[in-house]
Structures are given as C-alpha cells and as structure tokens.
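Lab notebook page, bench 4
Experiment: in silico fold of construct C2
Operator: M.H.
Input chain length: 172 residues
Purpose: comparison with the prior construct
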Amino acid sequence: MADEVDTSMAFKRLNILVVDDNAAMRGLVRTVLTAFGCEMIFEASTAQHCVEVLRAKAIDIIVLDWKMKPVDGISLVKLLRNPNKSPNPYVPIIMLTAYAELSKVREARDAGVTEFMAKPFSADALYRRIQSIVNRPRPFVRTKVFFGPDRRRLAKPDYEGPERRDDEVQSA
C-alpha cells in the first residue's frame, strides 16, 4: 500500500515492552524483535514492573503473556485499559499465549488486546502483527462496558443498518 510506513525504519524506532514471567520466553521474543530491526526493547517479568516501565518510558507496543503470577496477563490488560489507573491506556497490546481456544481469544479481545497470537509463534506472524499495528492502527472505542481497540475488523462501507453494538458508543 502506498500509505504504509517503511516498516524497517518504523521497527527501528519502536519502543517495545515484552512482559512475561518466563525469562527464556522474554529472551526468545527479544531475539526475534532484534532480528526485525527493533533496537529499543524493554522487559518486565511482572504486572507491577510493566506498569513501572510504562510510567518511565514511552512504550509503543506491549507483547504480553497471559499466564503470569501473581497477576495474570488478562488482568493486566484490563488494568492497562483503565484510563484512571493506566499510564497509557491506548498502548497496543499483543497477547502472546499458550491458550488457543476461541473462548480465550474472545476473552482477550473483550479485555482490550489489540492482537492475539498463540504459542508456539512464528517470527513471520509476530512481524505481521506489529506491521499491522504500525500501518493500520485500530481506532479506540469507549462504550458503557468496553474501552479499547475497535473489535470490528470487517469494514462494511455500504452498511446502513442499526448500530451493531448492544451499548451506545461514547467518545474514546
């Protein structure tokens, strides 16, 4: 696409935070991100450390594991999407998890993740998720029960029916 950002230059400028309580997995993700040209990669092993890094750095993307202790990744996503508690409620979040069930994908989506990936992951799949965040950032929506990236990916420009959400959209 003509409007797409030169991905190699964009990746070099990204501040990415990898959040996982498993040091080996953080190292693996860091290695893959480095191969993409990312130079500013931060790590956190807990939810508390993640929030501390977000307060100290201008993070562009978070790559987050679901299964962590004492606070799991889904609870962390909900905290990060809370504008009253989060240093950056708009930060894109890629959930990288061993869970692959549809119910978990929906739960993550409804918590406010931007992208979802199941482990084991491929470098190509992670690259495409980051590229999508850089080139086609999803707008944020706020409703009575949700704040996060727009969950609808299918654009229907000819759609003329009623609002498809159960609750009314508020400004994000």
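Observations: DSSP finds six helices and eight strands in the chain. The longest strand covers residues 15-19.
Next step: discuss at group meeting.
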